[in-house]
Amino acid sequence: MKVHEIAADLADEQDALDRIVAPINETAWSTDTPSPRWNITDQIAHLAYFDMAATTAITDPDRFRSMVDDLMGAAAGGILAVDEFTLGPYRTLGPKGLLVEWREGRVRQAEAAATLSDDTRVTWYGPSMGARSFLTARLMEVWAHGQDIVDALGTTRPPTDRLRHIAQLGVITRAWTYINRKLDPPATDVDVILSAPSGAEWTWGPGNSTDTVTGSALDFCLVVTQRRHVDDTDLAVVGEATRDWLTMAQAFAGPPTDGPGEGSA
């Protein structure tokens, strides 16, 4: 998929989340979400901060590197210091102000993304990323943090075929899940066969592996973004290598995390 197509899907995913949070009352913005320490305000603040960071990474890489140094400095103070550094300024805006800031930041990010080509590399936390992977990761972030908000509100949202981006990311980060934990990636291939919201079938893998995962794209995306334990989904998991992967799958960057335990949904 071309970078401009991914950018369009990212904007659509952001708009879909906006339609969920825009109508809720001010009290609801303080609702705790499944992410430890974070309420709905914090979830949107997180997205707003990293939209700003993404825009800076595209438009001013040198300034972005300075921002990374500042963030690492804050990290020396612990996780609460990181929250204050990234979320603090947005928390003070109130729900209406935060919505305005998030929306304006999304416009700036979209304008920056429009300057990218398929072969552009973007400076980011850790190694640089290809433009398509960079925007796919942004879409995954919006969707995953949106799931936390949906869960907090006790509501649902219709799945769309934008899930393909997240499923693709989930598949290609299988090795990363192990490397991030200082483990050797397994040699066993896994065939992934998913039912798209549109009814299409999406497949990855050699096509003849004895290790497989089959089921809905939604369930798979919930697992690889650590929003559901694999045993709390309807995914059909065959083979020890498949199960080992999906009990710790991590499609996002950062230190290894374990995700929800069985029965948390």
List the helices and strands and how they pair.
Layout: H1 3-21, H2 40-59, H3 61-75, H4 79-91, H5 94-113, E1 121-122, E2 129-130, H6 131-153, H7 163-172, H8 174-179, E3 191-195, E4 201-204, E5 212-216, H9 217-224, E6 236-238, H10 240-246
Parallel strand pairs: 3-5
Antiparallel strand pairs: 1-2, 3-4, 5-6
Oligomer: single chain
What class do helices, strands and sheet pairing give? alpha+beta
Fourth CATH level, the homologous superfamily of the largest domain:
dinb family like domain
Widest sheet: strand order?
A: 4-3-5-6
Number of helices: 10
Strand segment tally: 6
Q: Could you please say which CATH topology of the largest domain applies here?
A: Four Helix Bundle (Hemerythrin (Met), subunit A)
Q: How many domains would you count in the coordinates?
A: 2
What do you see in this structure?
- The structure is a single chain.
- This protein has 265 residues and is α+β, with helices and mostly antiparallel strands.
- It folds into 2 domains: 3-153, dinb family like domain (Four Helix Bundle (Hemerythrin (Met), subunit A)), CATH 1.20.120; 163-246.
- The protein contains 10 helices and 6 strands, in the order H-H-H-H-H-E-E-H-H-H-E-E-E-H-E-H.
- The protein has helices at residues 3-21, 40-59, 61-75, 79-91, 94-113, 131-153, 163-172, 174-179, 217-224, 240-246, and strands at 121-122, 129-130, 191-195, 201-204, 212-216, 236-238.
- The strands form 2 sheets. Strands 4-3-5-6 form a 4-stranded mixed sheet. Strands 1-2 form a two-stranded antiparallel sheet.
- Strand 3 (191-195) and strand 4 (201-204) form a beta hairpin.
- Helix 7 (163-172) packs across helix 9 (217-224).
- It is globular.
